[in-house]
């Protein structure tokens, strides 16, 4: 990561005057860590450049959600993964698009199940969750509050 929070040769594009970033991941195993870095860098830039209050918990949860969604795309959908992050009404909205047609759904609770709890975790921390099919593939969108409570940063 560079000092400005961007990774070297950052594929992210920011639209001037908006609190939004989009990047394409190559769908290889290193894309998951890269997505977490880019998400944390985006929130750090929003704080530094725009004075946006973002709690440490919001940054951690955003990285967790990005990691879970990109991991699912990596595992179940061939090809590139598109990630959009934007600030909307006191929340960071994470949208992950991939070529998969099957929409994710939470599984019934099973204390004996090892793994495959990612969507359950995402649903537990999300303010809002939406999964929809698109012309090509699907988009999963999650919103995470930027602040835990008033005065928390």
Keywords:
153 residues, alpha+beta, six-stranded antiparallel sheet, disordered N terminus
Report on this structure.
The protein is 32% helix and 25% strand. The radius of gyration is 15 Å and the shape is globular. The chain has a 6-stranded antiparallel beta sheet, covered by helices on one side. The longest helix is centred in the middle third of the chain and has 21 residues, at 56-76. It is built from 3 helices and 6 strands. A hairpin with a 4-residue loop joins strand 5 and strand 6. The model is unreliable at 1-11 (pLDDT under 50). The chain is α+β, with helices and mostly antiparallel strands and 153 residues long.
Q: Helices and strands in order, then pairings?
A:
Blueprint: E1 13-14, E2 20-25, H1 31-50, H2 56-76, E3 81-88, E4 91-98, H3 118-125, E5 128-133, E6 138-145
Antiparallel strand pairs: 1-2, 2-3, 3-4, 4-6, 5-6
Give the total of beta strands.
Answer: 6
Helix/sheet category: alpha+beta
Q: Characterize the largest beta sheet: strand count, sense, and whether it forms a barrel.
A: 6 strands, antiparallel
Q: In percent, how much strand structure appears in the residues?
A: 15-25%
Number of helices: 3
Ends apart, CA distance between termini: 23 Å
Low confidence ranges: 1-11
Q: Strand order of the main beta sheet, please?
A: 1-2-3-4-6-5
Mean pLDDT: 85
The Cα radius of gyration reads 15 Å
* SSE pattern, N- to C-terminal: EEHHEEHEE
Shape: globular
Helix fraction by DSSP (H/I, runs of at least 4): 25-40%
């Amino acid at each position: 990561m560079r000092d400005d929070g961007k990774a070297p040769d950052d594929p992210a594009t920011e639209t001037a005057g908006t609190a939004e970033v989009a990047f394409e991941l190559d769908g290889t195993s290193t894309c998951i860590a890269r997505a977490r870095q880019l998400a944390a860098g985006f929130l750090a830039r929003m704080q530094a450049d725009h004075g946006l209050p973002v709690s440490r918990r919001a940054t951690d949860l955003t990285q967790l959600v990005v990691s879970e969604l990109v991991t699912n795309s990596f595992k179940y959908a061939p090809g590139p993964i598109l990630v959009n992050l934007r600030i909307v009404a006191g929340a960071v909205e994470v949208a992950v698009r991939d070529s998969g047609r099957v929409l994710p759904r939470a599984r019934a609770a099973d204390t004996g199940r090892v793994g495959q709890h990612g969507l359950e975790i995402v649903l537990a921390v999300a303010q809002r969750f939406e999964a929809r099919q698109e012309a090509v593939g699907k988009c999963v969108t999650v919103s995470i509050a930027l602040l835990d409570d008033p005065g928390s940063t």
